[in-house]
C-alpha cells in the first residue's frame, strides 16, 4: 500500500513535503495565539477545499452548495452534544451519515434526470438555501437566533469532547487535512480516480468505455459530502455557535471553493496552496488597514475581489501548476493531467 | 401573529387573490430583471453571477436621482438604462470576452470577483442602510372589483412589459438582433459569415445590462435597496430563469410571474420569512421533472 502510494513520487517532492509537514507540526511551539488561529483557518479551508475538489476537480461536477454539508455536519454533531451530551467523535458518525445522505439525494435526483453543468450547480445552491431557511425556522435547534455550545474556561484540553485551546484544534485540523491529502492522493491513483478523471474529461467517452458514470458520479458526491461534514463538526466545536444564516449561506459555499480554484482545480496541492494564499491575503489586508487606521467596511473585500480577478485573468490554471514547475516537481506521465 | 401552519381555510379568498395579484405584478418585474441572465446565457454562454449586483447599481442610481433631483424612477429608467448599457458593454469587452472559451469554473470566478467588487464598492459608497424612493403616488391604489392593487406595482409591471416587448421586438425584427441570434445558434457559423462576434457579444451584454438597469429603476418602487440585495437577486434571477428555461426570453417572464406568485402566496400562508423556500422548492421540482425549464430547449 505504502509502496504503491509512494511509487514514482520524485524524491525531491517527498523531501519538500516532509519538511513542510514537520514545520506545520512544530509551529505551535513558537507561534502565538493569533498565528495559530490563522493557521487553523487555513487548514480548515484547505480541508474543505480538498473535499470539494473530489467532486468538482476530479469528477467534474460543479457544486456551489458545499455549505449544505458543512452545515448539516455541524448541526448534527452539535445537536447530539448539546441536547444529549454525546461526544463529537461519536456525533461525527451521524454527521457523516446525514451529509452523505443529502449528497446522495442531490446526486441521485440530478444524475438520474441528466441534470448537469450549470443546472447541477444551481440545484446544489437550491438545496443549501432550502436548508438555510428550514433551519432558520426550526425552533428546537434555536432557529434564526442560533445554537450555542456551552463555553467555559477550560484549564485542560478535553479531546474527547473537543473542548479546549486553539492548539488542540490546530492538531485536530492538521490531522484531518493530512488525512484528506493522503486519501485524495490514493484516490487519484486508484481505479475510481481514473474513472472520475475520464468522466470529467468526457462523460460520453467514459460511458462508451463501459464506465458506469452514474455510479461513479454518485461515489464522488457522497464521498465529498461526507468529508465536508467533518469540517462542519470542527466548525461547530471550534466556534461554539451556529447560525443558519451563516453556516448555510451561499457566500460560505463560494468562500470554500475560491481556494481550490485559485490554487489549481483538480490538483492535490491546489486546495492547500489556495487556502494559504487567500487566508494570508485576507488577514494581511486587514492588518495593513488597521496599521493605516483605515476603517471602512467593505474595503478588504474590494481588495480581495481585485486579487481574485488578477489571479483568474493571468493564472488560468491556478497558482499551483506554475509553482510546481518552478519548484521542479513536475512528474513524468503518470501524473493526473492538467485540469480541463 | 399569524398561526404558523395555516393553510387556505383561515385566510379569506379575496386576501389570497389580492396577494396573488400583487405577486403577479412583482413577478413581471422579476421576469424582466431575469431576462438579461437568460439572454446572456443564450448568446454569450456565460452565466452571469454579477447579475443582481448590476441591478443594485441601477437601483442606487435611481435613488440618487430621486433624492437629489426629485426625478421619478419610472422616467429615469431610460437614462439609467443608457448608463448601464455603457457599463455592461465595457465589462463584456474588457473582462468577459477573453474568458469565452475558458472552462465554466474559471468564468464563475471571474464573475464572482466582479460581483464581490461591486457589492463592496456600493457598501463603501452608500453604507449599509436601506435607501428608498417615495414618489407622490407611493400610496395610491387601483380598485378592480375586490382587487386592490398598488399603483407603484401596476406602473412598474406595465413598464416591465413594455421593456420586455421592446427587447423581444429588437431580437425578432432588427438586423442586429438577427445577427445576435445567429451567434447564439451557431458560433462557428456566425464567424464564417463574417459577423463581428466579439462586438455582438459586447452589444448583447450591454443591452442586457440596459434591460437590468431599467428593471432596477422600477424595483426601487417595490423594495428598499441595500448592498446585500445584489447577491439575493442574483440567486432569485437564477431560480426564475431556470424555472422558465435558460436561454428563453418568454420563459424568464413566465418564470418570474410563477415565482412572484409562489413567493407571495407562500409568504401569506406560511410565514413571510420562509417565502423564498417555496421558490427554491419550485426550482427543485422543475429541475427534476423538466430540467430544461418550462420553455427551454433540451440541451444536447
Question: What this model shows, in words?
Answer:
- The complex is a heterodimer of chains A (340) and B (300).
- By secondary structure, chain A is mostly helical.
- Chain A has a domain at 27-249.
- Chain A is built from 15 helices and two strands.
- In chain A, helix 3 packs across helix 13, helix 4 crosses helix 10 and helix 7 (166-188) packs antiparallel against helix 10 (213-239).
- Chain B has helices at residues 13-44, 51-69, 73-96, 104-126, 151-173, 175-185, 187-192, 197-222, 229-244, 249-269, 275-289, and strands at residues 141-144, 147-150.
- Chain B has a two-stranded antiparallel sheet.
- Chain B is mainly alpha-helical and 300 residues long.
- Chain B starts with 12 loop residues before the first helix and ends in an 11-residue tail after the last helix.
In brief, what are we looking at here?
The complex is a heterodimer of chains A (340) and B (300). Chain A is mostly helical and 340 residues long.
What are the main properties of this structure?
heterodimer; A: 340 residues; mainly alpha; two-stranded antiparallel sheet; globular; B: 300 residues; ABC transporter involved in vitamin B12 uptake, BtuC; 11 helices; 2 strands; 3% strand
